[in-house]
Here is the input.
Amino acid sequence: MFTGIITDVGEIASLKPVAQGQLHRLRILCRFDQSTIDDGASIACNGVCLTVVASGVEAGRTWFDVDAAAETLRLTTAKNWAVGTKLNLERALKIGDELGGHIVAGHVDGVAEIVTRDDLTDMARFELRTSRELARFIAAKGSVTLDGVSLTVNTVADTTFSVLIIPHTLTVTTLGAWRAGAAVNLEVDLMARYAARLTEMK
Here is the structure.
């Protein structure tokens, strides 16, 4: 489990397709203490929960390797990642950690497209569009996770919704580089999904 509070921005150092293109082995550079990264640990990379298969230090910088499987490549923006791509990183929750965002599973539901970006004083407002299937789980004042970042929904209209990004988030995540037309990973709120399922069962 995660909270959607980003603790580092990593960078893809290498990407190697394996298993006939059904699996990508990624090496990601980060600022985490390598001694705290165990093989088998979960790290959310742009909202995608990936499992560490190796880690180390090279030229004074920590790296860790993860595998992105076929389903991840199909459903998320991972299929477009390349060497140099910046990724929002979050370590998995530990008992006693502060829950600063909302409960995030790291299981990306699909993608949303950035329709517009409006730069305000020190802030930015984004309007995004997603599929009708996912839009039904998004509500004004509810939570969404976009590229791993926990955000509050401002407005909703049919399949579009908007979020307002504060200066701190623009600075410490990749969101400051977002532009219209880009695709981002979307995880809808777990509570909204369960509530919808309960309604369907009545």
Summary: Residues 8-91 form a domain with the Elongation Factor Tu (Ef-tu); domain 3 fold (CATH 2.40.30.20). The two ends are 29 Å apart (CA to CA). The chain has four helices and twelve strands.
